[in-house]
Automatic annotation (TrEMBL):
It holds the Pfam family pPIWI_RE_REase. Coiled coil: none annotated. This is REase associating with pPIWI RE domain-containing protein. InterPro entries: pPIWI_RE_REase, pPIWI_RE_Y. Residues 259-375 form the REase associating with pPIWI RE domain. Residues 18-162 form the pPIWI-RE three-gene island domain. It comes from Streptomyces luteolus.
């Protein structure tokens, strides 16, 4: 196995499964406390992950972490490729990949992806998927695709709700079929999001920022951080806003984050004069783009830190509503951050995907401009 080729069964590597268990433990620890401080007892999953890591280190002749705090210290400061794990697939992780962000002490997006997708079961039903499926079912039973679209936009455009926002959402008739879902997925905001008596939202992606140190703020979205410091958005006084709610973390990571990219892409395509339908056919795919000559593109936006996991999850875009060409799209910053991103995706792409192409959002916009200009070659196409 070389840096350029993962083995066919790399998802079942014991060391990758161990990292998945450590990522799961990190998320559990983060859910009950700040990751830079701990109180006993630790969650059982954290102790099990530590025991397995210690055993593997001893087998490899390496000094193991002395306890859960040191394991978390590793997750924050040691790139995954430097861990003493001899069966970790070569070339899977980039040089800077860590489970915990160094500055904020919060789980990285890769940590979330390992916990959700790193277990070899790409069809596993996870929380975010269950939520979307339940919303789909409720809106379908109500024969209301408009309600489903309103629900998806809510998750993308309003990840944080003040008491006043909650009243507004509660009286939106379009959201009636999914009222029970909304009440479950918006949770009270933990106090560690507050500095003094204030919460602060990110102006770019609308989620709550995490206070870091005495003055700084950190955005949990990789794409936002790639653009520099988090721009300050809504300043929320803890007393004035009443009961503050936010989407649960898996939905912020896997629905709100990609959804922000979807809405941005929608705006760029509409600015070119194209007709764009969002989440058509009860979210069969993300964007249905119609050109003046009636030609239709189907686009699914993905925003994953790990391209190998994305490749293994690849599947054909559903054929309904009908389209002429289809592709998956990833934000361009992912490829700038990891130059082999598209190559790794293509190499690991599941056979069932039938050669499904992955483009950056910038490449998709260029292709749309070229097609509008009358070109019909491969550069004006999104399908293989």
């Amino acid at each position: 196995m070389t840096d350029h080729q993962l083995s066919a069964d790399w998802l079942s590597h014991p060391d990758l499964m161990l990292l998945r268990d450590i990522a799961t433990a990190v998320l559990q620890l983060a859910a009950v406390d700040d990751l830079d401080s701990f109180t006993l007892p630790y969650p059982a999953a954290a102790q099990r992950a530590l025991d397995a890591l210690v055993l593997q280190c001893l087998r490899n002749g390496a000094r193991p972490p002395a306890g859960v705090p040191e394991m978390v210290h590793w997750a924050r400061l040691r790139p995954l490729g430097s861990w003493p794990l001899d069966q970790l697939p070569v070339g899977l992780f980039d040089g800077g990949d860590r489970l915990i962000d160094r500055d904020s002490c919060r789980p990285s997006q890769l940590c979330h992806e390992l916990a959700v997708h790193g277990h070899g079961d790409s069809t596993g039903r996870q929380y975010d998927r269950l939520v979307i499926e339940e919303a789909f079912r409720a809106c379908r039973d109500a024969s209301s695709p408009e309600s489903y679209t309103a629900f998806r936009r809510l998750l993308v455009e309003r990840p944080v709700l003040t008491a006043w926002d909650w009243t507004d959402v509660s009286t939106d008739l379009f959201l009636d079929p999914v009222r029970h879902v909304i009440e479950e997925i918006y949770a009270p905001v933990p106090p560690h999001f507050r500095r003094g008596g204030t919460y602060l939202c990110c102006h770019r992606c609308l989620v709550l920022l995490h206070p870091v140190g005495s003055t700084a703020w950190w955005c949990e979205r990789d794409q936002c951080r790639s653009q520099g410091g988090a721009p300050h958005g809504r300043d929320l006084d803890a007393v004035a806003v009443g009961d503050l709610r936010q989407l649960r973390a898996p939905l912020r990571q896997f629905v709100t984050g990609p959804g922000r990219a979807e809405v941005a892409l929608e705006g760029e395509l509409r600015a070119l004069g194209l007709h764009v339908e969002m989440w058509p056919g009860f979210d069969a795919y993300d964007l249905r783009v119609t050109f003046p000559d009636g030609h239709v593109w189907a686009v699914d936006m993905k925003d994953w830190a790990q391209p190998a996991f994305l490749g293994r999850s690849a599947a054909p875009v559903p054929r309904r509503p009908p389209y002429d060409e289809a592709c998956w799209v990833v934000p361009a910053f992912r490829v700038r951050a990891r130059r082999d991103y598209l190559e790794v995706y293509a190499r690991e792409r599941a056979e069932r995907a039938g050669g499904l192409r992955l483009l950056t959002d910038e490449r998709l916009i260029r292709a749309a401009r070229m097609r509008l200009a009358g070109e019909r070659g491969p550069d004006a196409s999104i399908a293989p």
